User: What shape does this take?
Amino acid sequence: MNLEDRSIVFLPCVWQKRADVLKKEAKIVSFEDLLYYFPYRYIDRSKFYKVEEIHGEMPEIQLKGKILYYEYIGEGRTKRLVAKFTDGTDTIDLVWFNGHKFITDKYKPDKEIIVFGKPTEFKHTFNIVHPDIDPIENAAQVANGLMPMYGTTELMKKSFINSRAIQDMQFALLKTINRQVDETLPPYLLARLNMVSISEAMCNIHFPESVAKLQQAQIRLKFDELFYIQLNILKTATLRRNKLQGLVFGSVGDMFNTFYRDFLPFTLTEAQKRVIREIRADLGSKRQMNRLLQGDVGSGKTLVALMTMLLAIDNGHQACLMAPTEILANQHFITLKDFLGNMDVKIELLTGSTKQKQRYRILPELANGQIDIIVGTHALLEDAVVFRSLGLAVIDEQHRFGVEQRSRLWVKNPQLPHVLIMTATPIPRTLAMTLYGDLDVSVIDELPPGRKPIKTVHRYDNKKAELFTFLRSEILKGRQAYIVFPMIKESEKSDYKNLEEGFEIYRKVFPEFTVGMVHGQMKSKEKDAQMQRFVNGEVNILVATTVIEVGVNVPNASVMIIESAERFGLSQLHQLRGRVGRGAEQSYCVLLSSFKLSNVTRRRLEIMVSTNDGFKIAEEDLQLRGAGDLEGTAQSGEGLFLKIANIAQDGRILQFARDTAQSIINADPNLDAPENQILNARLQSLFHRKINWGLIS
Assistant: This one.
């Protein structure tokens, strides 16, 4: 049975209105969608409590007894239905704010029922609001062990689709398909893995027979999910390597050698040398390079990128560097020009702000090959931008570009250019394996000589007087400072007010200095002008939101003060901290927070104070927050939506899944063998709705 093609409206407990809500809120349309809508936790319903045992700290509980009577309390919008329930030991109130007639018609007083819900205390008496109720005859179905709990939204609840309703749908679905699901793994692999069948796993994930059976089901379904992600990544990467021939950069010529000998601004770190060796091996291998270059802010990624560009020029090709914002593109352009000095390399900048007169000059020169390197933003993707021979595309912070956008760059060349992706967002190994699993990964894990680690401290709001004294002393030394305020969409108005108030406070406290402000609601030109003033040293203190997270290089900025630091995630705090520490002077990051901190938030701030290592921070962030919430990692339009696996907790299953997928691809790259047809079919089913941009990058 093809579950993907069967609509959920064919289930007896799902009518059209319910189906519309499920589609909108949970993306559940087919039998398969519903089957793969997994519980997020389980509650042991094998135990019945007594009403007399209830106390204020209890989770959901299960009771057995009778409703004595119903009464209505309150008027208008506060009107509620209250049932007095007893099990013989004491009484408790059951409360409903809507659906009154349904309840009174269905559950008559003096009939024995099972009640399930969370008890709360109100005016010294306990009640359960909107409990699940079942007739005692259903005890075998609902009260015999582990009960699944499903995620629901407010709109789903308003439409009476709560966790229990979804449980009923799953029960009806499994009955409809006779508890049989088409196997997703070939027999040889299932035997090798010694895992339960997909049918047994599905039955036990939704209605566990025991804790042991639940664990077996979870392992099987987590493996399945991660295995097919890895199989898709590895099959695509293998196809690209085998089918798509890359430009061969066979020689290291005058440009590279002259730069290395005469223009290198500082001695390369061992990490930079290692990465350049890895890149050179790719460029001479006859296959297209697709490499992810990871390294903290200031680790020297741009210098490595430039040396790679010089290899392209030495071999008769052009190179481009694409950045997500104009200000960052400008920064890269200035940095590359400074590095190149008076070398005979023609480099140009193309952004949305490039004047028409300059465009008329740049575009023909790019098309006829006079320009060696072009730096730009999305403007490089325009149809009017034509290269004579694009040999290398360097992309900075690729998660800020959609894959479809980037693909428009590759079609500008008959042969696909080599691709080098740079990111200052440290990505944990397990997440990189899943998000960027088809890319080769290089890591620059050393800072250039002369850089001092940033000193990070945590201070509470009431210590601002001391902070202002410290800040004044730093600025009097000729330094500059960032003051960052949160700007969260949900509370944008109050955040904006806080930002403006903060701006006024810093202006009053530091009348002798120039205080500037930038935020996301400003027009681009205005924002860029303010940032440029800061770059030029005309502004001493820049009050800002996170728009400066990926921004300019200001070596003179040595102080980063993050207001309400408790409202930022770890990755974001680390990215913000990376705005300072770019020069030779000692830099500081001050995390300001209120006294009221949760344990998780306190741990986050402790991690920031204890280490500057971006990879340690990223691993901790993954543990604290989970993959779905990690900032700066999901590519636009390609978020990591896992239904059951957890990248933070299931690293061993992920590695096992990747190793298994790799062994299959090594033996049968196209999955042509008869025994692997089931794998090919499943890949088609899972990924056919997505355009396969994996061949691009």
User: Anything to note?
Assistant: The mean pLDDT is 87. The two ends are 35 Å apart (CA to CA). The chain has 24 helices and 22 strands.
